Amino acid sequence: MTKDEREVLIARLQRENDESRAEIARRKTEREENPAAFDVAALADRRVTGVESDLAYGDIRQPEPSPPVAKSGEGGGLVYKTTETAQAAAPRMGLGASSGDDEWKGWNDWVKAHIANDRADLVEQLTKAIGEVIATMREECSAEIKAAIGERDIKIAKLEAQVELLLRMYVPAKTGEVVEIPKGIMRKVHDNG
């Protein structure tokens, strides 16, 4: 960058800074002339922020009650009546709009929604946990049942083999003879199982 280019750039930046300062001054004047036209909450008040460069507005005042009212009576004399306008309660700012006497409505609604979400999460977690327990129990019971069925099938197979052996021993093939079974054979068969 040459010296001439640098001087042109500096002049341009100074001009832009001057324009920005003029715009800031114009806005400040406009705000001071008509403060109601601006969002007061967005403007800084030096009494609150403690920064001297911020603007300061007038005192925040509560509405004053109305002065006494004098009315003339029917009897020719003056009758003085003193009434005061009740001050309306300032609106409460909170999480939600207040309705009726429930000044905690916004908070209560938020808590109820939060609890409902927690309950939904808890139900989902419990459902998953119960499903896992049921699946595990089915696997364990299934293994036990399969083992018991296997033992039963082995016993049945042994008994079938013994019955077949007995039939071969004591029933002659294709003869019509009746064969007498010796006493005690049933006990021996029963004891073998």
Number of strands: 2
Number of alpha- plus pi-helical segments? 4
Silhouette:
elongated
Helix- and strand-based class?
A: mainly alpha
Poorly predicted residue ranges = 94-98, 188-193
Distance between the termini: 109 Å
Give the rounded overall mean pLDDT.
Answer: 75
**Quaternary form:** single chain
N to C succession of SSEs: HHEEHH
Helix content: 55-70%
Report the sheet-strand fraction: under 5%
**Which strands sit side by side, in order, in the main sheet?**
1-2
Instruction: Give the radius of gyration.
Output: 51 Å
Largest β-sheet summary: 2 strands, antiparallel
**Structural domain count:** 2
Give me some keywords for this one.
193 residues, mainly alpha, two-stranded antiparallel ribbon, 2 strands
What would your notes on this structure say?
The chain has 193 residues and is mainly alpha-helical. The chain has 2 domains: 57 residues; 93 residues. It contains 4 helices and 2 strands, in the order ααββαα. A hairpin with a 5-residue loop joins β1 and β2.
Could you give a quick summary of the protein structure above?
The protein is mostly helical. The chain is 56% helix and 4% strand. The protein folds into 2 domains: 1-57; 101-193.
